[in-house]
Amino acid sequence: MKIDFDGLQAFVAIADLGGFGKAAETLHLTQTALTRRLQKLEGWLGLQLVERSTRRVALTAVGREFLPQARAMVQDVSGAMHRLKEMAQHGHGQFTLACIPSMTSHVLPGLISQYAQRHPGNHIRLLDGASTEVRQAVLGGQAELGVALAGERHAELAETALFEDPLVFICRESHPLAAQDSLRWDDMRGQDLVGVNGFMATRIEMDYQLAKRGITLAARYEVQHHATALNLVAAGVGCAILPASTFREGDRPGVRRLALTQPTVRRQVRLLQRRHGVLSPAAQAFVQLLREVDWAAAPDTVPPTPG
After folding, report:
1. Do residues 272 and 156 share a domain?
2. How does strand 239-243 pair with strand 255-261?
3. Is the pLDDT of residue 17 over 80?
4. Domain named HTH lysR-type: which ranges (predicted)?
5. Quick one: CA torsion of 135, 168, 253, 219, rounded to 10 degrees?
6. DSSP β-ladder status, 266-274 and 157-172
7. How many whole angstroms separate alpha carbon 184 and alpha carbon 261?
8. What is the pLDDT of residue 174?
9. What stretch of H or E contains 215?
10. Quick check: is 301 in a domain?
């Protein structure tokens, strides 16, 4: 059933304002156009809602009975339209973001904090998983946006480069190598390394780069999450090779982060979205925030945005 909203709006305005002249002015219509809207509604209903005379305008008995319902419908639709307009203009609403777990250490918390300051009423649902899971979440519609590592391209995904995330060496300050400013991968031979199975894409890239130079590294300990690796390092169990974005100097007392060179192995972090998808206003506002970030200034810390 098609609802004649224009007719309902005209009827409610006439009833509430007591005449055609004021109602037409409020709705920015001519009296002729307003009359046609009311007549169309009455014709569709097969009932007369308004009694017209040269002296006054009054509602019929049916019109008086129908007015509260008509007013409620007009208010509901007008309120919904206003809320949608607010969403479009100010980026209000909620969205789901899929991301790789390493981004939740510093990068995403900093971004979400800035986003919350701009849009305090918005909500973000986070789905963390491996890069392949992030891609599937975006492709399947479970998430509007995804933050993942560069991988095999998909025709339905649009990818935007965010920053390069170098691998670094994490160790206790008492470690023999901790006094150096940077290390070579050759220096990793014989170290008690904590390997992170969860960084599958990172491990593949690291092993590939090292294999080209004839370097093979084996982890003495295997864990699933970078936080577990950091706990083991802090306890003095071993050392770890982790993305720079997962650890900042000062995060853990007595733990250092050293650059790894020859070669410098970097992960490419990208923003994903469906190529032909339409983002919600809330997701669009998050993308706008990402565009303002100076990623090159501090890719391994909470990224700054222009003042």
Report:
1. yes
2. unpaired
3. yes
4. 3-60
5. 80
6. antiparallel
7. 5
8. 92
9. none
10. no
The yes-or-no verdict on residue 49 having pLDDT over 60 is yes
**Residue whose tokens read 């008509």:** 70
218's CB contacts (< 8 A; 6+ apart) are 193
To which residue do tokens 């510093």 refer? Answer: 106
**Side chain identity, residue 155:** A
Per the CB < 8 A criterion, the answer to whether 286 and 117 are in contact is: no
Domain of 131, CATH number, reads 3.40.190.10
Give the C-alpha separation, 139 to 23, whole Å. Answer: 49
Mean pLDDT for the chain?
85
- Comparing CA positions, the residue from 152, 105, 98 lying closest to residue 127 is 98
Residue 240 domain boundaries: 165-266
pLDDT in tens, 57-75: 888 988 889 999 989 988 8
Same domain, 70 and 219: no
pTM of the model as a whole? 0.69
Q: Would you say residue 66 lies in a domain? A: yes
**151 and 81 within one domain:** no
Dig out the tokens for 123 from the structure: 């909500």
Tokens of residue 304, six digits: 């700054």
